[in-house]
From TrEMBL:
PANTHER family noted in UniProt: HOMO-OLIGOMERIC FLAVIN CONTAINING CYS DECARBOXYLASE FAMILY, PHOSPHOPANTOTHENOYLCYSTEINE DECARBOXYLASE
Residue stretches making up the Flavoprotein domain: 8-181
One Pfam match: Flavoprotein
Domain of life: Bacteria
Protein name per UniProt: Flavoprotein domain-containing protein
Length: 189
């Protein structure tokens, strides 16, 4: 797999069908030497069980249920400060829009809004959603803030009704390479 990476990566899972691919991404990141934490939106947990993500990460998953702890710790602040990179995967059109307008009403969006140092988006959505002018505007806004993107790729979509197109989640190797590149070009403080 190449040289070992170093750094702390928060994998932020949002609610798209491609969420089923994220345990493989998490395993690859861990194998590559990154310390990984996982946060998931409520909609992500409708697509993939929390337990599956926890097994891949080797630790509990941060969710809206754990957002405010009895100890008084506020997870979105803690996670934003902890992470050298927040990887949003899969990044849905909704997640991109929420970030671009500054919403912070779930743990993932609040973590990004709370000063995450670096954000890497791995979009996954149907081609029409990816090509929609609203999505393009949101992507440009986020890029203007220094956020980076990996994918989407051309390929078969989850729905059997759709033709292959641009919107498929980038492959595991491409995502890990983008994490490595992002952290190497802009090393953690």
């Amino acid at each position: 797999m190449g040289e070992k990476g170093s750094g702390r990566v928060l994998v932020a899972v949002t609610g798209g069908i491609a969420a089923y691919k994220i345990p493989g991404v998490i395993r690859r990141l861990r194998e590559a030497g990154y310390e990984v934490e996982v946060a998931a939106t409520p909609s992500a947990l409708r697509f993939i069980p929390e337990e599956t993500l926890a097994v891949a990460a080797g630790r509990r998953v941060h969710t809206d249920e754990t957002w405010w702890e009895e100890s008084g710790r506020i997870e979105h602040i803690t996670l934003a400060r902890w992470a050298d990179l927040v990887l949003v995967a899969p990044a849905t059109a909704d997640a991109l829009a929420r970030a671009a307008i500054g919403l912070g009403d779930d743990l993932v969006s609040a973590t990004i809004l709370a000063g995450a140092r670096r954000v890497l988006w791995a979009p996954a959505m149907n081609p029409e959603m990816w090509q929609n002018p609203a999505t393009a505007r949101n992507v440009e806004t986020l890029k203007g803030w220094g956020h980076r993107f990996v994918g989407p790729e051309e390929g078969a979509m989850a729905s059997t009704e759709e033709e292959p197109g641009l919107g498929r989640l980038a492959g595991e190797e491409a995502i890990v390479a983008a994490v490595r590149k992002t952290l190497a070009e802009d090393p953690p403080p």
